[in-house]
Amino acid sequence: MLRRDSVPSFEDYPFALPVVRALHTLPLHPTVTFFLGENGAGKSTLLEAMAIAVGLNPEGGSRNLRFQTRASHSPLSEYLRLVRGPHRPADSFFVRSETLYTLATALEDPSLGGVLQHYGDQSLHERSRGEALMALVTNRLGGGGLYLFDEPEAGLSPTRQLAFLAAMHQLVRRGSQLVLATHSPILLAYPDARIYELAGDKIVERRYEDTDHYRITSDFFSHRATMLRELLTDD
Predict the structure, then answer these.
(1) Which residue has the higher pLDDT, 68 or 51?
(2) How far is it, in rounded angstroms, from Cα 171 to Cα 22?
(3) Would the pTM of this model clear 0.85, i.e. be above it?
(4) What DSSP letter does each residue of 89-154 carry, written as one string?
(5) Sequence-distant (≥ 6) Cβ neighbours of residue 27 within 8 angstroms
């Protein structure tokens, strides 16, 4: 919930973002909620603010894993009020694809004392970006937690996106709640998830088949030759 009466101005960043202008109360699904929208709509900013509001590191990580390369997060979290259910999450983690390298570096800090055993017992720097993400998800995230993911499909092949989808399901089966900002029509296919599309100055709940991500992907595969001809033909 956005405490709109406390917002200093909806003309300034981050309150001028479409998602923030449209935000009032946003009920999350008890298992999986997706945020989707065009670049610049503010879905990552909203997810970051939620992570900070529950005590997670802005650049990714847990409540106890703190590191910072540049304080670039917005003040939006100060204006959010999160209403929690009766059960407190046993675990929580914020996964940001754009800061995964920084997270991998922080995990090698000797002062953390062998924390890599919780991430597959191998440096995440010794893995590809997609492998590092999957190692984190399958080894570190034990379930029963609140897990936030910002564009986890970055670096994942279509096959690995399917593997990530299966890993999501295992976390749900272990009592987790997941909130994801994504562009991936594969991840969006998770059954019975709640999907919020940031459509202009509105936040609209969509069926999977009604999202632009599904429609454009489906149209491309069905009418590839026609669409490519229209896109690539010089006027």
Answers:
(1) 51
(2) 30
(3) yes
(4) -SEEEEEEGGGHHHHHHHTT-GGG-SGGGGGTSS-GGGS-HHHHHHHIIIII--SSEEEEEESTTT
(5) 194
